[in-house]
Specification:
Number of helices of chain A: 16
Helix content of chain B: over 70%
Order of helices and strands of chain A: HHHHHHHHHHHHEEHHHH
CATH superfamily of chain B: Winged helix-like DNA-binding domain superfamily/Winged helix DNA-binding domain
Strand order of the largest sheet of chain A: 1-2
Largest interface: A-B, 31 and 29 residues
Helix content of chain A: over 70%
Shape of chain A: flat
Structural class of chain B: mainly alpha
CATH architecture of the largest domain in chain A: Alpha Horseshoe
CATH superfamily of the largest domain in chain A: Tetratricopeptide repeat domain
Strand content of chain A: under 5%
Radius of gyration of chain A: 26 Å
CATH class of the largest domain in chain A: Mainly Alpha
Oligomer: heterodimer
CATH architecture of chain B: Orthogonal Bundle
Number of helices of chain B: 4
Number of domains of chain B: 1
Radius of gyration of chain B: 15 Å
Shape of chain B: globular
Structural class of chain A: mainly alpha
Number of strands of chain A: 2
Number of strands of chain B: 0
Chain lengths: 334, 73
Amino acid sequence: MKKFEKVIYILDREAIPYEEKEYLKRIATEDIDIKNFISVHLKLKRIFNSTCHLDMEILAEFILYYDGDLDAAEYIPQITDKIEDHLAECSVCNNLYLECTKEFQQADSFVSKAINDNEDIKIQKKTSIFSRIRKTNFRAPITAIILLLIAYFGMMITSYYGTPSYKKNVFEFDAINISVIQSRDTELYKKGLTAFKQDDYDKTIDLLMEDIILNQSDSTIGYTHYLLGIAYLKSSENNILGTFKSYNHVRVNEGIQNLMIFIKENEGSDNVRASIDAHYYIAKAYLSIDAIEEAKKHLIIVTEKKGKYYSDAVEILNVLENDDQFKSANTKKQ
Amino acid sequence: MSTGNNGTEDKELLASQVTKVLNSLTEEKQKIVRLRFWAHLDFKQIAEYLNKSEAVVRKSYYNTLLALKNRLR
């Protein structure tokens, strides 16, 4: 049982560290029950994350809770935000919610009076909000909107000119080695590749993780690490209102680790080019988190081995060198 | 790159398959799975809700997932 608990603890983490991944692989080989458990857990997690329609029972409890019913489940307050967000995004569930609320009101005539009172309050609130908006002088909101727009464009300009060229669209690799990413044939890998092509990187990560844990001894498992590494990098990017970009360091490091594993697994194979490309992706990963010296090491490998990203790597190294010269000149002046 | 409608249809199909599989479980097991994966509740919270001990809920969860192995393909 303790083994299961540790496995669940690991599987619940947002990003699984390398050592724990190795632990899962080892334990899955030793114990078929654990292997099956991990497989089903990852599958359910993926399905619930991707389909994610509101569960009927949770929806029913939410309706009870929303109507002030003290019998509603105690866990509902903890997930109210999640449910409301989902209802705002998902028309299927929102329609179901409206339908259920209506049926609930019709079914219980005693409670419906209370519900109607509640609705009246809501309508009154809405009416008063609208009338307030109408009465308000429009000058203040318009000024606020103009100020917001100025601030937004200011942020865009600062972001554009303040971001070094090598960090702009850092993970938009325009020529991911197609022959490499199509070199593996397991069902999970193929599904992961499909999700990757649909830009659904979270799903890609779930599927490829499952592939690695369940098929670790396959000779072509390195390709899963390759694609997983790129998926982690692409999923690490956060965009603040289309202006400043930030990168999730945990995911970037996961990406780097997986690409390093690919390079190691690919040693001695005929497909040397793929390893050189992986070095370029690793360099870009380091650039995204401002680990410039680490990035340089990998860029130098790309230039020495004359990979497909040779000219990009040379260009970035030149920019980094100019930055260094600029910084050292400034230091001397001071 | 997006497959648009196909992607949505696939998700809907998957969702209905999972619903079928979950419906084959006892009501309590369904609740445990749904509260774990949809609501992200921990075992302590699920145990409180179901009025069971945490150990019972954990054991039921492990057994349920193992039992689902052959039904989820």
